[in-house]
Amino acid sequence: MNTYLAIDLGAGSGRIMAVRSVGETIELDQVCRFDSPAIEQEGSLFWDIHLIWTEITRGLKQAAQTYGSTIRSIGVDSWGVDYAWFDSAGELSKLPYCYRDARTHGSVDEVAGLLGCDAIFEETGIQFMAINSLYQIVDDLKKGLLSGRFLMIADMINYWLTGRQVCERTNASTTHLYNPRTQAWSKVLVEGIGLPTSTLPPLVAPGETLGPLQPKVAAETGLANTPVIAVGSHDTASAIAGVPASTDSFAYLSCGTWALLGTEVAEPIITDTALDHNFTNETGVEGTYRLLKNITGLWILQECRRVWQDEDKRAISYDELTEFTAHAAPFTAFIDPDDIIFSHHGNLPEMIQEYCQSSGQSMPITRGQIARIAMESLALKVASILEQLEFLLGRPLNVLHVIGGGVQNRFLMQCIANATQRRVIAGPTEATALGNALVQMIANSEVASLRDGRARLAKAIDTTAYEPSESWDNARQRFRSLLAKNTP
Question: Which residues are registered as beta bridge partners of 245?
């Protein structure tokens, strides 16, 4: 048995998964899970990276005690765009900002006015989003916060594990400072915003061995001489690597707090049409590119649930939420999940009501109506983006693989099948950990390639298929009209 430890850090919680390879089977154990919420200090949101590190070392020690000599390597993935500054002595200068902090509002227009949207997209092929590292770094430049070198979240953990300050390419591509054609930092953007080149960490590819654990970490965890592998350190890159696809042509939806819809391509698609539709070309595993678009995913439903739990002073399970959603009337109103009003913490049930009323639709009253509007609107947004994706490719994508925590919501999965009129293959929920481990398996010569690894996953991992069960043509038309009316 070979055991691969996948440190998977999400924006709000993290876990360490043990992915165990036994013959042709693959088994997953959760070593530990921990909350890592953003914290507020001096009016801004930050990540408590020290808490995250403490939980990681605790989990690694637990894994060493459980799996011992079967552990082959460790890989780290995290959410993208966020980073922290390290001084010339290699010490953390300041807690990393959370991308949901409001400091970058208006930064996209500011930087676009300085360098031009066309030039920025030509250099990076990346979707314009105010949360991207580029706009955060511009704010840092204004405030004089630069100190030595920046490291992305997963790269920070790799640095503390191994002592190497590098940036893995899949996460680098989320910064809006990386050129996918040259596979290097963009000289045009770095110079354009006045960022010193000394702040840029060296780049490494997925699958590169970063080194063994530092002696102090090895002694603390009991994992002496265990190598750390640079995996697809952007969690979406690992998640897509973990899609159990039997063909090279498929659409994927990584469905969690964010919903990322796209496909794999051999070369970045950096065209006027891609720019017009605000698609992104993020770097993937084994020389692939992830042509995708970010959609606000289960965040809205999660926030609604949080508000209702506070009101009731009790826990509301997702099964309970789904049950009263399923009994609400369909298609009473829609929202655009990506409207900026839904992007921050707040009373989202009230925001949904206000959105529906201000857009001339029926205002939902019950929790079931509100939740159903959120889920149907997400499914319809997925269908809309899938149409744009197929237009960019010039060919259909007949199968949609859905991975991540959202696959547990069977009601939502059926909504997506109906809205897209596509066969939906849901699962696994743990695609990120599996993809993380798959890159480690390739680096350890247990699996020959990404394609071989996916074929192995397809045999070993259970999935659920959803077929379209009704026509949503009228709903799609109404949703298109809503988007058109609200697009400047």
Answer: none
